[in-house]
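Subject: Protein entry, chain in single-letter code together with its fold tokens

Category: Structural biology, sequence-to-fold work with a learned token vocabulary.

Notation: Tokens come from a learned vocabulary of local backbone shapes, not from coordinates.

Start of record: The labelled sequence and token lines come straight after this line.
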Amino acid sequence: MYGGTVIDHFGINCADWERSKAFYDKVLGVLGYTRQMDFGVAIGYGTDGHPDFWIADMSTGAAAGPNREVHIAFAAKDAESVQAFFRTALALGVEPLHEPRLWPEYHENYYGAFVRDPDGNNVEAVFHGGLGVA
């Protein structure tokens, strides 16, 4: 849930998927972080069911190819803020990736919107309280 922090989570793409998984499993493990979600081509690390840091296999799916975009998600205080983020970004002429909606594949109250920033990065606003307020 929104805790007054600007960054909710972020992710990077990895060229050597197997080596990267082994590396992050071990180095984050000694810091007390574990795999919280694993989609096969993307793994989220964190604690208590909340993945804060993601790695993605850049040889498959949306991460495939030479573009090494960064994904960063900014914490929003409510669903209306997610919608305002999306409208504002579009007014600035950036590419929409995903309109504001619930993403139950992440969790039942995950409400987010995604755009591509002027440099090609995947930027998201997310609220963890569904369509209601915190």
